[in-house]
Design a protein that fits this description.
Chain lengths: 215, 424
């Protein structure tokens, strides 16, 4: 009898602990709807979450533990446009930056003025150039090409991207590059929301002092 | 006398032949000039034109398509060369001079003035026109044809999946069945042989030969019931245990998004860096969902996609124009009880996006790649070295660690397993 017991315990153990590894979650497979969760009231933020918005007040009512009259999952700011949790900063707000950059106000149509008067505040250091190179690869290369020849992969559907490495654009100033990134030119739109001023200057530094020089 | 005449005759014949031949050659040259002469400019000039065109013109012009400015095919038929040269050199001057054609062009293309190219010489502009002549006579290469070819090649690849996995299993089953059959045949033959000689056998062997399996007694036996019930309970317990592990894990979550945005196309084919759209990834806690102005950087121009056509992009443009945010469905939801910071992992740790998000650039529709469980986080913190590259913050720590230890400094060693790092 003890033999059968031992055997069955071995089998039971083998069943219990077979194939328990990290990969097991792959069995869940692709699913379109969310699954179950433990302790939902610890999972869903009561504070406004920047990238979560649940506008339905009844979601999570069954688990609600406080008396604010809305469900546990409700997470929206009713005072904001579209009940969004994020808001654009108040008009006139100035972002504090390490290097004390003030907002850039030269309007889009004053390109030739900007190209003349703007001076790059950053020094031409290897660190700044390397940063600029990385930023160029991330924010410019898919259109303007890795070597600036206007042959990035996006050029195919976009049909026409400026060639930075050759031709007329070799003569432009660093301020010109900065102004065009900030405000756009022709079909290129402003990239000011993606690159702050310091980053724009780094890109300008890289384009003028490395990209155009090495060609 | 006769000989002399013969000499003259032969000489004149030779002259005649030579002159005839020369004539023929000249006329042959003439005909080639007549057929190709109008187009066949020097190849070097065309090449020069091609280079200049790619350097200066492609920003706004294509040969067959209207981009910012008009399609340049057959421009030499529309305008005379001197006009083209003066327009390229200083378009403002030509328009200001009241030239009707130039003013019409200016009005037709949204009053966008063409950039002036005073640095280009007459010869260079002529070479560009020659290049446009040659390119214009070729049929336009459509993007769709290229895409079609690509699709065909990719389906070929996917069809050629590895069939050996199934084959091994089938082969194994066949062999096992064969072994079973052989064993049964073998034992029945043996039993038959022993039965023939039953008289000579001992009592114990007789029982063995005439053995009949009593299934009812076997199923009712205590041992059998114990084994079966324990196996059953263990299996049930295991199922419950595992199901509990699966709770709260959303690996493979792939919701339907309001706009069928393809990461495969944008990040994969067009090689747009993740950071271009997810601007917060090196700066803050969230990687950020791009605002619509970032979409419009390209989609102010590109209005038709290869897969969903114009409808999907029209939704983006409409949302931008009406200032309505797109309600993307969030895929990666870390529970509120734990804190995660993108900048710390991407900027300081130097991790690639694919470490946690998988091969996004091959996903037509994005799903959650990693389990995002605590075990998964902890495991990585145990295995990952502290990244001291280009970061003086850890320099002294790494230096003193390397003096006393031969092992690498792991994230776990500098508090990567502290509860309060993520839970507070």
């Amino acid at each position: 009898m003890s033999i059968t017991k031992n055997i069955s315990l071995i089998i039971a153990g083998a069943i219990m602990f077979s194939c328990t590894d990290q990969e097991k979650f792959k069995n869940i497979g692709i699913h379109e709807n969310t699954r179950w969760e433990f302790a939902p009231n610890m999972y869903h933020s009561k504070a406004y979450e920047p990238l979560t918005q649940i506008t339905d007040e009844n979601q999570g009512v069954f688990i609600s533990s406080d008396d604010d009259g809305v469900g546990e999952y409700y997470n929206s700011n009713p005072h904001n446009p579209h009940q969004m949790n994020m808001r654009v900063p108040a008009e006139g707000t100035i972002k504090r930056t390490k290097n004390g950059f003030m907002p850039y106000h030269i309007p889009k149509d004053s390109l030739s003025y900007a190209a003349k008067v703007l001076v790059n505040p950053l020094e031409n250091s290897p660190k700044n150039l390397a940063d600029g190179e990385l930023l160029y690869a991330k924010f410019c290369a898919h259109c303007h090409g890795a070597e600036g020849k206007g042959d990035g992969p996006v050029n195919k559907p976009f049909k026409g991207v400026a060639n930075l490495a050759e031709g007329q654009l070799k003569t432009i100033s660093m301020g010109h590059v900065f102004h065009v990134i900030s405000n756009g030119k022709g079909r290129m739109l402003s990239h000011a929301s993606q690159l702050d001023q310091e980053e724009r200057w780094k890109v300008a530094l890289y384009v003028k002092n490395k990209l155009q020089v090495s060609q | 006398m006769f000989l002399k005449r013969l000499k003259i005759l032969s000489a004149s014949l030779v002259i005649f032949l030579i002159s005839f031949e020369l004539n023929f050659e000249v006329s042959a040259q003439d005909t080639t000039k007549n057929t190709n002469g109008a187009v066949a400019a020097d190849q070097a000039i065309i090449d020069q034109g091609a280079t200049l065109f790619k350097q200066n013109c492609v920003t706004c012009h294509a040969i067959h398509d209207v981009v910012v400015g008009p399609a340049l095919k057959d421009v030499h038929k529309r305008r005379q060369l001197p006009w083209i040269i003066s327009f390229v050199k200083n378009s403002t001057k030509v328009i200001a001079s009241g030239d009707q054609y130039a003013v019409d062009l200016y009005n037709k293309y949204n009053k966008t003035q063409m950039t002036s190219f005073p640095n280009l010489s007459d010869a260079e502009i002529t070479s560009i026109v020659e290049y446009i002549k040659v390119e214009g006579s070729k049929a336009p290469v459509t993007a769709q044809a290229v895409d079609g070819a690509k699709d065909a090649s990719s389906t070929d690849k996917s069809n050629a999946s590895n069939p050996y996995g199934d084959l091994t299993i089938i082969l194994l089953v066949v062999i096992l069945v064969l072994v079973l059959v052989i064993l049964i045949v073998f034992s029945s033959v043996l039993r038959k042989y022993l039965k023939d000689k039953e008289a000579n056998l001992e009592e114990a062997d007789k029982v063995l030969v005439n053995q009949k399996i009593d299934f009812v007694a076997f199923f009712k036996s205590k041992g059998f019931i114990t084994v079966v019930s324990i196996v059953f309970v263990a299996w049930g317990a295991r199922a419950c245990w595992n199901t509990m592990f699966y709770v709260g894990v959303e690996q493979g979550y792939q919701p339907v998004q309001p706009i069928p945005f393809s990461h495969k196309l944008h990040a994969g084919e067009y090689k747009i860096d993740c950071n271009y759209c997810h601007t917060g990834v090196t700066k803050g806690k969230q990687a950020n969902i791009p605002s619509l102005n970032i979409c419009m950087n390209c989609h102010s121009q590109i209005k038709k996609g290869p897969k969903y056509g114009e409808a999907a992009i029209a939704k983006v443009v409409k949302a931008y124009e009406t200032n309505t945010p797109v309600k993307w469905v969030r895929i990666h939801n870390l529970p509120d009880l734990s804190y995660f910071n993108h900048a710390q992992h991407v900027k300081v740790g130097g991790l690639e996006c694919t470490n946690c998000h998988g091969q996004i650039d091959t996903m037509e529709v994005v799903h959650q790649h990693a389990p995002l469980t605590m075990g998964w986080c902890i495991n990585c913190h145990r295995e990952t070295k502290v990244n001291g590259k280009d970061n003086d913050y850890y320099a002294k720590l790494l230096e003193s660690h390397n003096q006393v230890s031969k092992k690498d400094l792991k994230v776990a060693d500098i508090g990567g397993l502290e509860c309060s790092k993520c839970h507070y």
